Recover the amino acids of this structure.
C-alpha cells in the first residue's frame, strides 16, 4: 500500500519553512509510517481518516490554520495539557500542539541548549530554530508553562525567536495553589481577550467547554473499548489518535473518533480483533510520547503483545476528566482549574493520586504487566518511578522500567529487555 506525507512547497515558503529540509523529513516519515502502521492485519476501516490526517499533517491542516489566521482568529501553540484550550476555543481561536518527539532536530537544539536535558524540549526547540515545523510557523504565540525546569528556562531562550507566554503551574494541590492557578487562568483569558478582541462571557466559555469535553468523551469511549477480551484495535493506532487529538479540529476529530468507536463496538460483537490470539496485554505509564515517537509501542507490538492503556499526557491524563459545566463565568473558570488539578503529572508533590490512578487503570485495562517509560533526564518521572515500582511490587504487578530518548540507537537494547519482560509474563 502506498503512503505519502504530502508536500506544499509554495505554502511552506510563504510561512517561512525550510522547504528543502522539511521535504527530506517528510520522505523519511512517509516510509516509517507505511512500515509501522499500514502493514497491520485486521486494521479498522475508520483508521483511514487518521492516515489521511498524517498524510496532510504539513499541508491540509496547515492551510486550514493559515486561512483561519487570515480571518483574524488567534492561533496558540502549546506543549502541555495544562494550557486551557477551552478558553482558546471559546474565543474562536485554535489551540495546536507543537512539533516534538523526533531525534531529527535534537542536534540543532544542542548547539544552543545543554545536551543533558529533556529530549522533548530539545526536539521542540530544534524544530523551531530549524524552521521545519509548520505549526510553529503559523502560531501567533507559544503558550508555555512552568511544569519542569527544562521547559521554563527554555521558554526564556525560545522567546527570543517567537513570542512565548508562560503560565505558572503550582507544584502542589492545596487551596492556596488552586487560587494561584485560578489567577493564572484568568490572566491567560485576559491575554486571549486582548489578542482576539473578543470579551469572554459564560455562554462562549460554556460552548468551548462542551466542544473540548466532547473530544475527551470520544477518547474515553475509545480507551474503554480496549478493556474487552477481544481487542479491536492496536495500541499504536490508539497512540496515533491520542497524538492527533492535539493537532486536528476538535469537533471534526470527535466525530471521527465516535465513528471509529461504532466500528470497534461492531468488531467486538463479531469477535473481530486481536483477542483470538490472546496476546499479552501491556500498560504504559510515564512521560508523553509526542508524534512521531512510536518507538516503545512498535517494539512491544512487534513482539506480539498489545498495549492497552497509556497513563500519560498523551493518553489518559489528557482525557480522563471533564470540565464540569457551570452557569456563570467565574464558576466555569474554577471548573477548568479543578480539572487541571486532577491531571496528576509527576511535577506535583505529594502525588499519591497518580499512584492510585495507575492502579485503577491497570486493573480496568486487564493488563498483564506494566512498563514505566521515561524520557532521559526527566527527573520528576524518573524519581516518581521509585514509588510506582514499589507499589507494583506490593500489588504483585509485573514491572519494567524503561528510559529512552528519540534516537534509534537503543532500539536493539530495548527490544531485548522488552522481550525478556514479555517472556516472564508468559511464564
Amino acid at each position: 500500500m502506498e503512503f505519502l506525507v504530502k508536500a506544499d512547497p509554495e505554502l511552506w515558503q510563504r510561512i517561512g519553512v525550510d522547504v528543502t529540509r522539511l521535504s527530506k523529513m517528510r520522505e523519511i516519515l512517509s516510509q516509517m509510517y507505511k512500515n509501522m502502521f499500514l502493514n497491520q492485519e485486521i486494521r479498522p476501516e475508520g483508521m483511514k481518516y487518521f492516515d489521511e490526517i498524517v498524510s496532510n499533517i504539513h499541508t491540509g491542516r496547515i492551510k486550514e490554520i493559515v486561512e483561519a489566521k487570515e480571518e483574524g482568529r488567534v492561533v496558540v501553540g502549546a506543549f502541555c495539557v495544562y494550557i486551557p484550550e477551552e478558553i482558546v476555543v471559546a474565543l474562536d481561536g485554535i489551540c495546536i500542539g507543537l512539533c516534538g518527539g523526533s531525534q531529527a532536530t535534537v542536534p540543532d537544539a544542542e548547539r544552543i541548549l545543554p545536551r543533558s536535558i529533556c529530549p522533548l524540549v530539545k526536539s521542540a526547540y530544534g524544530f523551531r530554530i530549524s524552521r521545519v515545523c509548520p505549526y510553529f510557523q503559523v502560531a501567533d504565540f507559544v503558550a508555555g508553562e512552568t511544569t519542569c525546569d527544562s521547559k521554563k528556562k527554555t521558554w526564556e531562550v525560545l522567546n527570543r525567536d517567537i513570542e512565548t507566554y508562560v503560565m505558572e503551574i503550582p507544584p502542589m494541590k492545596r487551596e492556596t495553589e488552586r487560587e494561584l492557578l485560578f489567577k493564572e487562568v484568568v490572566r491567560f483569558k485576559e491575554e486571549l481577550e486582548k489578542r482576539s478582541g473578543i470579551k469572554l462571557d459564560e455562554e462562549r466559555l460554556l460552548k468551548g467547554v462542551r466542544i473540548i469535553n466532547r473530544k475527551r468523551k470520544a477518547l474515553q469511549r475509545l480507551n474503554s473499548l480496549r478493556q474487552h477480551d477481544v481487542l479491536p484495535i492496536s495500541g499504536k493506532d490508539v497512540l496515533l489518535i491520542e497524538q492527533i487529538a492535539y493537532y486536528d479540529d476538535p469537533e471534526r476529530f470527535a466525530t471521527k473518533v465516535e465513528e471509529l468507536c461504532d466500528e470497534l463496538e461492531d468488531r467486538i460483537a463479531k469477535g473481530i480483533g486481536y483477542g483470538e490470539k490472546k496476546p499479552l496485554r501491556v500498560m504504559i505509564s510515564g512521560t508523553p510520547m509526542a508524534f512521531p515517537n512510536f518507538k516503545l509501542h512498535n517494539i512491544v507490538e512487534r513482539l506480539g503483545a498489545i498495549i492497552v492503556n497509556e497513563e500519560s499526557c498523551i493518553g489518559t491524563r489528557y482525557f480522563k476528566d471533564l470540565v464540569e459545566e457551570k452557569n456563570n463565568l467565574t464558576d466555569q473558570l474554577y471548573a477548568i482549574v479543578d480539572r487541571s488539578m486532577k491531571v496528576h503529572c509527576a511535577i506535583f508533590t505529594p502525588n499519591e493520586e497518580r499512584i492510585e490512578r495507575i492502579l485503577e487503570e491497570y486493573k480496568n485495562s486487564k493488563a498483564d504487566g506494566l512498563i514505566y517509560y521515561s524520557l532521559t533526564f526527566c527527573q520528576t518521572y524518573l524519581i516518581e518511578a521509585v514509588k510506582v515500582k514499589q507499589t507494583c511490587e506490593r500489588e504483585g504487578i509485573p514491572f519494567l522500567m524503561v528510559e529512552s530518548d528519540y534516537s534509534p540507537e537503543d532500539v536493539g537494547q530495548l527490544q531485548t529487555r522488552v522481550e525478556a519482560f514479555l517472556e516472564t509474563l508468559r511464564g
